[in-house]
Amino acid sequence: MSERFMLSSISNDLLSPEMLGYWNDGSLRDVPDDSGIYCVFRAATDPETNVMEVQQLLYVGEHRNVRYALQHHPDNEKWRAFLQPGEELWYSMGLCGHANRERLAAAMIYAHKPRCNAASEYLDHYPFPETTVHIYGKKHKLQSIFTVEHRP
């Protein structure tokens, strides 16, 4: 397996995904159909550069097949409700095996508190051991490194 598609677990307490992306609705077929976490962003044109850029993290999820999860997610219309005219949904993902996928998604939700994860148990609750996450790759609007303590 290529190194860019691996989740490092140097120790049980460090998770280090490379965030891949970005994809929009027209390119979702190019998202890997592998296990991992995914982020949904609101993207808009920057008025100074006139370039479309990530503006806000809306949602964090996890699935055994990220492409399928993004193409068939039941909250897709809820995400779209936050878009203004001319804005798009953009997606990124970090490949992660089953063993750490929920733990990584929970840490991301706890640390970032995305508005469309409002019903998540992980906003104020982290049932896993203390975890440090080091994100690299496509990480705009994401904390690069953070630690989440166990909170039952």
From TrEMBL:
Q: Which domain of life is it from?
A: Bacteria
- Give the protein's recorded name: Uncharacterized protein
User: What is the organism of origin for this protein?
Assistant: Halomonas sulfidivorans
- List the taxonomic lineage: Bacteria, Pseudomonadati, Pseudomonadota, Gammaproteobacteria, Oceanospirillales
